[in-house]
Design brief:
The complex is a heterodimer of chains A (235) and B (346). Chain A is built from seven helices and ten strands. Chain A is globular, with a radius of gyration of 18 Å. The longest helix of chain A is centred in the N-terminal third of the chain and has 18 residues. Chain A folds into two domains: 126 residues, Nucleotidyltransferase, domain 5 (2-Layer Sandwich), CATH 3.30.420.40; 93 residues, 2-Layer Sandwich (Nucleotidyltransferase, domain 5), CATH 3.30.420.40. Chain A has 235 residues and is an alpha/beta fold. Chain B is α/β, with parallel strands linked by helices. The longest helix of chain B is centred in the last third of the chain and has 26 residues. The chains are: A alpha/beta (235), B alpha/beta (346). At the A-B interface, helix 1, helix 2 and helix 7 of A face helix 2 and helix 3 of B. The complex binds zinc ion. Zinc ion binds next to helix 4 of chain B.
Chain lengths: 235, 346
């Protein structure tokens, strides 16, 4: 089955084409450049290089977040529109799980990929890798790095951290967790779009029309409005 | 008749997501609406008293494929029937524009259909072509929440901005004055309704600017309204809101209409087109109609309300002309929140 994978949820831009247990094309950059300008040309180029026409595609897999709101929306909009108009299934996969899957392939134990979310916070989740398969232990969330580290310490087992934003939080993690904190090699820090395509290969397709990014957070205005409403209702 | 087989049909699919409407339309031969679907988010934004960009972007992602599907269903067309995909590339809210632009690119890629980026204001002007064929040279008065412009066109696809606002757009001034009068968002229609029952008895300024200028300025007027309310409150006086609304509206309309009439004469135009959401304003419509009825040789065209507010049929209509003129966008097409009308499409 010819699968196109798209990841624009954070700085890395990742596109992959896989078919029958083979990654036939993969494109990754990790630069602070505009996804909107670059992602469609990247998809077109990769398909052309791999001699795959849009009509040949049989499934679209997209990184659904968390990440940059705008970034993830660009990937999800293209994925939804392509899947709908080509009448092929669409699968969304956690942007965090993609990192876990690739970094933990030859590691047994807990994996906690992370993206920086500013003000000491991280987008992260907890996964457990065993014999090459991955299970979700704690779903993706937005949490203070220090709170998250406290929680992970209680596992009393090594935890593998991965992600391009590790340098921002590495000191806190290492200081608080000591030997328990393991850090992936820098060559594992970009989410692999081939891995994304593989993760989505056998998953249940989503309803294309209603599919939206996993923002984790409400829009700020909405959160404030709900808070105000709660206060008013309490009066 | 018989030879209709040789008549070339052109179908353009338009996409518009520059603010809080997710809109998709299909227009035949540049002037015939085949489908025109608009999913409005206004109910969602009302609770915030204005459009929240992040929330607008989220709604666009929820709606985009649904609205495209509905347009294709109504039109009873296949993608292979389409000649081009036209999409608003700017100006507007960047996050909102990005949804339309990227959906358009995906459709263009999937089916190998040419892509044409369109200026939002060019779209508003071309809404008129869905009513009446354009006759050049013409002048368009564009008034909306984000724009107040006088645009001169000597031919299709040529746009010369001869006047624009130096501060607030007329629609913005309406919304701010409505807020001062404690009216719900969006305030424009409320002021218009109130003005209809009031009298313009309060003296408010009109910004004519330098002699001969076609530019506009509404911030002074807006401040004058706020000061009038404030001073009256301090003196314990009550100003009838309908009179204030009527006075404010009269001031806005005086400047808009006077400058439009003067430009229409100076440029010897054959048509004057009203465009943009504020074109729904009854006071503005009736004043323009009265003024231009007295001017020989100039035809005034005012589209129906549904084509004045943001829609995608207008983008497809503009797309039809730009496509014919050979304009194409490639897959690097981006959302451009500050896109310039004169430079674009020239
Ligand atoms: Zn508009």
């Amino acid at each position: 089955m010819k699968v196109l994978a798209i990841d624009t949820s954070n700085y890395p831009l990742g596109i992959a084409l896989i078919d029958d247990q083979q990654v036939i094309g993969e494109y990754i950059t990790n630069v602070k450049k505009n996804h909107s300008v670059r992602v469609m040309p990247a998809i077109e180029n990769l398909c052309r290089e791999c001699d795959i026409k849009p009509a040949d595609l049989e499934k679209i897999v997209v990184a659904e977040g968390p990440g940059s709101y705008t970034g993830v929306r660009i990937g999800v909009t293209i994925a939804k529109t392509l899947a709908w108009t080509l009448q092929i299934p669409l699968v969304g996969v956690s942007s965090i799980e993609v990192l876990a899957a690739s970094a933990a392939r030859y590691f047994s134990g807990y994996v906690a990929p992370l993206f920086d979310a500013r003000r000491g916070q991280v987008y992260t989740g907890l996964y457990r890798s065993q014999n090459g398969s991955l299970e979700t232990v704690k779903k993706d969330q937005l949490v203070l790095a220090t709170d998250w580290t406290e929680h992970l310490k209680e596992l009393s087992e090594p935890v593998l951290f991965v992600g391009n934003d590790l340098p921002i939080h590495r000191e806190v993690l290492a200081n608080m967790m000591g030997d328990q904190a393991r850090f992936a090699h820098y060559t594992e820090h970009n989410p692999r779009p081939g891995e994304l395509a593989h993760l989505g290969l056998h998953r249940e397709p989503v309803d294309i029309h209603t599919f939206v990014p996993n923002y984790i957070r409400l829009a700020e205005a909405e959160a404030k409005w709900l808070e105000g409403k709660k206060e008013n209702d309490a009066k | 008749m018989g030879d209709n087989m040789s008549e070339k049909k052109q179908y353009i699919l338009g996409i518009e997501t520059s603010c809080d409407e997710t809109a998709v339309a299909i227009v035949k031969n540049g002037h015939e609406i085949v489908a025109n679907i608009v999913a409005s988010q206004i109910e969602s934004h009302k609770r915030f008293g204005g459009v929240v960009p992040e929330i607008a972007s989220r709604h666009h992602v929820e709606q985009i494929t649904i609205v495209i599907e509905e347009a294709m269903r109504v039109a009873e067309l296949q993608f292979s029937d389409l000649d081009a995909i036209a999409v608003t590339e700017g100006p507007g809210l960047v996050g909102a524009l990005l949804i339309g632009v990227n959906a358009a690119k995906a459709l263009s890629f999937a089916h190998g259909i040419p892509l044409v980026g369109i200026h939002h204001i060019a779209g508003h002007i071309y809404a008129n072509r869905l009513i009446k064929e354009m006759d050049f040279p013409l002048l368009s008065l564009v008034v909306s929440g984000g724009h107040t412009e006088l645009v001169y066109m000597k031919e299709h696809g040529h746009f010369e901005v001869i006047g624009e606002t130096r501060d607030d757009a007329a629609g913005e001034a309406y919304d701010k004055v409505a807020r001062t009068l404690k009216m719900p968002y969006p305030g424009g229609p409320h002021i218009d309704r109130l003005a209809a029952v009031g009298s313009p008895v309060i003296d408010l300024p009109r910004a004519w600017l330098e002699e001969g200028s076609y530019d506009f300025s509404f911030s002074g007027l807006k401040s004058a309204v706020i000061n009038t309310v404030h001073n009256a409150e301090q003196r314990g006086e009550v100003i009838a809101p309908e009179d204030l609304a009527a006075s404010f509206q009269q001031s806005v309309i005086d400047v808009l209409v006077t400058k439009t009439v003067r430009a229409a004469k100076q440029y010897s135009v054959k048509q004057v087109l009203l465009a943009g959401g504020v074109a729904a304003n009854k006071g503005l419509r009736s004043t323009l109609e009265k003024e231009f009825a007295a001017i020989e040789g100039v035809e005034l065209i005012i589209p129906p309300l549904s084509l004045c507010t943001d829609n995608a049929a207008m983008i497809a209509a503009a797309g039809s002309v730009m496509y014919e003129k050979g304009q194409r966008s490639d897959f690097t097409l981006n959302a451009n929140p500050g896109l310039d009308l004169s430079i674009h499409n020239s």
